[in-house]
Amino acid sequence: GTLDSPVHAVNLKLTLETIKEEHPDAFIIAVDASLGKAEHIGYITLSTKSLKPGLGVNKDLPEVGNLCITGIVNISGVMDTMVLQSTRLSTVMELADCISNGIIWTLYRIKKELRHIS
Asked: Residue 75: which H helix or E strand, with range?
């Protein structure tokens, strides 16, 4: 998704169906914002498991991805939905930039290694 056309609870299932139809063998990296401890705001997590979107706000949504990356954007606890709505966009954007740069750098390194091998 993008800022103009985000993937969210309403269109997630259709988006996943479209990806599977158009790219049946795709390796999917799911990226999302998450809530955590106050001292972890700004941290990025990486998991080799699927993302469970909506878990923090008690939504039952399909799991996404072959691995997932999350950026901790605010604190979890009481009234998580309100906390998400009051999260600073600058925090989200800084983490999004860092995550996307990390993915680009990793793909560059993989491509460089593959050229070195062949």
From this structure: strand 67-75
